[in-house]
Write a structure and sequence with these properties.
Blueprint lengths: L9 H13 L6 H8 L28 H21 L5 H5 L32 H9 L7 H25 L8 H11 L1 H4 L9 H12 L1
């Protein structure tokens, strides 16, 4: 099972993936597939390509937003190229880019990329509707776990909104801030760039304090 991604600092990005897997997050398809297999599935990371700093249009010590956006476009185009080469996008998406005789069949347990990387170039492109439409392409997958993912993710989003409405009130509880921050940073990593995602195990701490007090 393959998933193609990108990162400006590969060491940081891999650490983020490992932390998310260790903490059991299943907000993305590739996390869900790994964790649903229990001990029968493991994670490996392979570098498919690398852009040397000299090849970029902007240096690290130069601040130019327009040129940095061009660099982001180039990185994303390379990511798209890899998803097409390894055919990790849904079948319907692949048919928009590749001739039919180039597409492997059947598409079993290969495509763990859901959203076309081009949607992630600019904030606002990947709307809620676009993300759900991309996930819905998996409903026709021959793989039963992939076919279940659109409904699973839809329920996750629904339950999250319901919890925020019913339990959080006008302000979230301090013990819930960690999960909220974790989800926000992960969902916006293409906008924020590669940063260390903090982990706040606040709820267990508050539970221990409550037990000690009472």
């Amino acid at each position: 099972m393959l998933y193609i991604g990108q990162g400006q600092v590969i060491r940081v990005r891999i650490s983020q993936h490992k932390e998310n897997i260790d903490f059991g997050y299943i907000t993305s398809l590739h996390y869900y597939i790994i964790l649903s297999g229990g001990k029968s599935r493991t994670t490996n990371f392979i570098r498919l390509y690398r852009l040397h700093s000299d090849s970029l249009l902007i240096k690290e010590d130069t601040k130019n937003q327009q040129v940095e956006q061009l660099n982001e476009v180039r990185r994303t185009l390379l990511e798209l190229l890899m998803t097409l080469a390894f055919q990790t996008l849904p079948a319907k998406e692949l048919r928009q880019w590749l001739p039919n005789n180039f597409i492997k069949s059947p598409f079993r347990t290969l495509h763990l990329n859901v959203l076309n990387p081009l949607y992630q170039i600019k904030k606002g492109f990947a709307t809620v509707e676009v993300r759900q439409a991309s996930r819905d392409q998996l409903l026709s997958s021959d793989d039963p776990q992939l076919a279940l993912w659109p409904d699973i993710r839809k329920r996750q989003i629904h339950d999250q909104k319901k919890q925020q409405t019913q339990n959080l009130g006008p302000y979230p509880k301090l013990s819930q801030m960690g999960d909220i921050l974790q989800t926000t940073l992960e969902d916006n990593r293409y906008t924020l760039g590669d940063i260390d995602i903090p982990i706040f195990p606040l709820k267990p701490l508050f539970d221990q304090i409550r037990e000690a007090k009472y």
